[in-house]
Write a structure and sequence with these properties.
By secondary structure, the chain is mostly helical. About 65% of the residues lie in helices and about 0% in strands.
């Protein structure tokens, strides 16, 4: 039987869904780190055209996201120093 009316989600929709999954994690972050996490998801949305594959989240994703936030913090500090 063929199901009608189902569409494939866009990458942008997938990023929004993934962002929502991180909501509890986000609430536990410091305010400035919440902004960094939001910036990371914004970066993903900026690359929506090239986002063709969606991975299934694993616990290691929490580790990677934490590392990304820390890296973004350091980038922000370097940019602030340069200005």
């Amino acid at each position: 039987m063929i199901q009608m009316g189902r569409t494939i989600r866009t990458f942008r929709e997938a990023v929004d869904i993934e962002s929502a999954k991180w909501k509890t994690f986000r609430r536990q972050l410091k305010r400035e780190d919440r902004e960094r996490l939001d910036k990371i998801f914004d970066y993903a949305r900026m690359h929506a055209d090239s986002g063709t594959v969606i991975s299934i989240p694993h616990k290691i994703d929490v580790v990677f996201m934490s590392v990304l936030i820390e890296m973004q913090r350091r980038i922000d500090e370097l940019e602030s120093t340069l200005q």
